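Please, structure for the following, as tokens.
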Amino acid sequence: MRNPYSVSRWVGLSVLLAAPAVLLVGLGLASGELSLNNALLIGLPSLVLYGVFAWWHTRTVRRALHRAEGILGDESRPPSSWDAWTMLGELDATVERLRRHLESEKGQVALQSTTADAILNALPDPILVLDAQRRIARANHAARKLFGNDAMGQDLSAALRHPTALEAADEVLAGRSGLVAADFALPTAEGRGFTLRVAALPLAGSSEAGQSLAGEGGVAAVLALHDVTALQKAERMRADFVANASHELRTPLASLVGFIETLLGPARDDEEARIRFLGIMRDQAARMARLINDLLSLSQIEMREHDRPSDAVALAPVLRDIAAGLQPQAQAKGIKINLELDAAAPSALGARDELIQVFQNLIDNAVKYGRPQTVVTVTLHRLDDETVEVAVRDQGEGIPKQHLPRLTERFYRVDSARSREMGGTGLGLAIVKHIVSRHRGRLVIDSEMGQGSVFMIRLPVSGRNNSPNAVTNPAPGGPASPP
């Protein structure tokens, strides 16, 4: 016993246990049935046994109370008035406090686990938690969407076979590094690129408590993936844009400089050459002006792309005005512009000036690239309760299927020489795509070699469900949709 409080309990319990025996022996002595020697022979061993039992009981209960107090985190116990010697009531009260404490801790652990799951699932990036054997112990929604639910409990290689990712995980799990970062690309048709971070978890294998909480095998590392495909694509597009824009401007600018030097030099007094050169210079200057105007227009549209227009635009008058304005160009090639406009077609939700730009571009392209003595057909009709469709069909040479997904890229041309000859900047369909995207519409392109092409614009109907999500918005920079 380490203190008087424990000694007094031991002595008190010994007396309490021995009292009946002492009473019986006393009665035996008083009645003469027991001699003093016999009483001592019976009483003394009994007292020793009661004392030993009281010592063992007090020591055991005291040890249990001490351990419970260590778990509860305090040294205070509720007083017991009726069993100060047996300590059973005190032990019962402490066990009850311990039960409540464990239930509270269990609730907190469950809450923390639920919160951790909610946080992980809310993250847009795939997150995997690995145990010490490189098995996938946990995965958030983004990871399960990327790798599937079957990957749970499997080795990391079952979900992610790239050597860079496996080597990074092995390095962290082996304890050679606490954090490894790397870049890699998945061998898919889209060529998706990722940045990878693998970090060791201090809980795994670092302490007895950590091993206990982590379970057999131990959670050892967390692996995070960040999809940089869009970023890499945007960087490539930016580099291509700068290169293409520089090239498009360099060619007419070099032509202008050359003609100016010629006019200042050998052709200074040549009237015929001066007139011819000035005509060429005017065309090159107009080409640069068109390119700059298209670049400015595209930049303005991109800045407003997330601001959805809300006006009701009657499409039939717009299409008639555009067709009338292009009649001289069409007649010069013997092309007839045929309008098939449904009088019952509803108005579209949009911005009139931008929709004029879209249909002007498409009908102008149909006239430019259509074969002479053919027909360009423009149709307007209601596609469904929420969508109105305008289709522009030409009878040109057609576009090879492999070029269709890239037609809306900046400066992309199927036939660069022919496009420049006809005054194209390579930005027209890119402008069309971004305007349609701003209208929450859809651009659909189809073409058959030798038969011609059709460009379909599908726009939300005015007066229907005009929330921003009423019509699917194509991803900016994505290819045109197939029919």
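The domain at 311-460 is CATH 3.30.565.10 (Heat Shock Protein 90). Residues 157 and 166 are 7 Å apart (CA to CA).
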